[in-house]
Here is the input.
Amino acid sequence: MKNKTTYCFLILFILFGLLLTSCGNSSPEKEAERQRQTQLKTQTKEQKTIKSKVDITLRAAHVAYNVKRYDLAIEKYNIAVTAGWLDGIDLYQYANSLDREGKTEESKIYYQKAYIELQKFYPNHTLLQVLKTKGYGE
Here is the structure.
């Protein structure tokens, strides 16, 4: 009887161990999503730090863009982008300003970057459709 109890206990112990190890396993998709979320959080923190440094410059760029002074907008957006600012909407406006000032080849680079950033942080933004019709994206 003692051997039977020990045997049953051993089987239960092994099954419990298997259960614990199988619960800890995650699929590659879940792990990839977890890593992507971690990267997005890190990038968001970095962007907040950069934004505090270029906030006034960005405001000036927005005003210049809205009053169609694309030459001034380019100058101000360039400062922000050089500092590492990657907001999709601002990148789109920078690219659009470059395009309107005749800097087509450079604008293509920033339209593509805008598409990538918009897709990450604003997956339903209307500018994504605008960029797709221009041939950017996937």
Summary: The chain has a mean pLDDT of 85. The chain has one domain: 32-133. DSSP finds six helices and no strands in the chain.
